[in-house]
Amino acid sequence: MTTEMKTIERIRASYAEKETTKLDELKKLDKKVKRPAQIFAYVYGSLSSLVLGAGMCLAMKVIGNSMGVGIGVGLVGIALTLTTYPIFKAILKRRKNEYASKIFELSDGLLNK
After folding, report:
1. DSSP class of 60
2. Which of 43, 98, 101, 103 is 20 to 30 A from 111 (CA-CA)?
3. Distance of CA 83 to the CA centre of its chain
4. Are 104 and 29 in contact (CB under 8 A)?
5. Do residues 53 and 70 make contact, with C-beta atoms less than 8 angstroms apart?
6. b or e along 91-109 (b: 16 or more beta carbons within 10 Å of the residue's beta carbon)?
7. Which spans in 1-113 are helix H?
8. Which residues have CB under 8 Å from 70's CB, separation 6+?
9. 9-64 pLDDT per residue, tens
10. CA–CA separation, 64 vs 62, rounded Å?
11. Alpha-carbon torsion, ordered 89, 91, 95, 96, to 10 deg
C-alpha cells in the first residue's frame, strides 16, 4: 500500500503549481543574462569555422581551382574565428552590467535571510 501512496503523491505533486522562490528567480535571471551571449558565440563561431573550412577547401583545390581566393577566404575565416571570444565577452559584460542591480538585489535578499 505504501508504494501506491507514494505513486499517488508523486503524480499529485506533478500537477500542483510550483512556488517560485527567490533562488529560482535568481537562476532564471542569470540564464537570461548569459543566454544571448552563448547563442551568439555558437552561431558566429560555427559560421566563421565554415568560412575557414571553405577557404581551406578552395586553397587545396577540393572545390574550385583558385588557391589565392582560398587563402584569402581562409584568412577571413581565421579572423572571424579569433573574434568570437572577445565579442562574446563584450556581450556578456554589457548584459551583466545591465542586470547587475537586479541580481545584487535578489542575492542580497537570499544572503541576508
Report:
1. T
2. 98
3. 16
4. no
5. no
6. bbeebeeeeeeebeebeee
7. 2-15, 22-59, 67-111
8. 55, 56, 57, 58, 59, 60, 61, 64
9. 889 888 888 778 888 888 999 999 999 999 999 999 999 999 999 999 999 988 88
10. 6
11. 10
**66 CB neighbour count, 10 Å cutoff:** 13
* Residue with the three cell numbers 581551406: 56
pTM, rounded to two decimals: 0.76
The amino acid occupying position 99 is Y
Residue 8 pLDDT greater than 80, yes or no: yes
Confidence check: pLDDT of 113 > 80 = no
Q: CA separation (Å) from 5 to 9, 14, 16, 17?
A: 6, 14, 16, 20
- Crossing angle for the helix pair 22-59 and 67-111, to the nearest 10 degrees: 170
Residue written as cell 517560485? 20
Q: Which residue has 538585489 as its cell numbers?
A: 105
N residues, the chain: 113
